[in-house]
Amino acid sequence: MREERKAERLHTLRTTGMDGVSKSRVILRGLFMACAACGSRGLFHHWWKMRESCPTCGLVFNRSDGYWIGAVAVNSMMSGFLLLATVVVSFLLALPDPQWQPVLIPSVAVGVVVPIFLDPISRTFWTSMVAIGRPPEKRGESN
To answer: Are the CB atoms for 46 and 27 separated by under 8 Å?
Structure first.
């Protein structure tokens, strides 16, 4: 049964460009740094260098000029939310007499480290969102 389903997903991947999983599964793939189309890993040479295409299914990641601006926006939103949460929690922990050091030091650390850490995650997450909104072309229909 499992082999039949795997063969069916592989056929769907070859004919439509996606393997037929749900939209929530595609989003989860993006959050866990896997290919949106096939779910495979190995999309990065190292932390900041993403491959041009998926080594398993051939999904091209950079579809047009300015494609990664969306990933930058996703990274900024996620980092901003975590920074805001850090400021609020640090301030609440510093009560009743808050000083600036217990609020500033963790906030600066989060503001510097989190965007670097989230860079590859935001790229694969953005790719998964684009794959849902504008699925890849069928194989053999490249322009």
So the answer is: no
SS3 call for 46: strand
* Residue 103 vs residues 44, 106, 113, 117: alpha-carbon distances, Å: 35, 6, 16, 21
Number of domain units in the chain: 1
Domain span at residue 70? 2-133
| Domain contains 75 | yes
**Tens-place pLDDT, residues 58-98:** 888 888 888 999 999 999 999 999 999 999 999 999 999 88
- The C-alpha angle 74, 79, 83, rounded to 5 degrees, equals 150
Confidence (pTM): 0.82
Q: Is residue 118 part of a domain?
A: yes
Within a domain: residue 143?
no
